[in-house]
Amino acid sequence: MVRWAAFSCLLVPVVLVVYGTSFGGAAVATLGLAAVTAACRVLLRHSEKAERAAARVLAEDRPQASGPSGHRGRHSRGGAGSHRGCHSPSGVSPQD
What does the alpha-carbon distance between residue 73 and residue 63 come to, in Å, rounded to a whole number? Predict the structure, then answer.
């Protein structure tokens, strides 16, 4: 993104001069665009550093998986009759 901004800093003054703006006006436009580009680059890098630092803090705070967990898996059974649709021993659901 910063490369496109730098490219526009070079392209805009050329276009301004071609369309009749003075060299002084094009130079001022170039300086203004360069200042905005530099400020955006600084803010972008600061944001990326803060994001990396936050991700590092979250990774350090995350508990490590040690030992068996309470979840047994998608298809495992917890015990007799604990799953949905429990049928009676005859294989037919009881009717009310």
Answer: 20
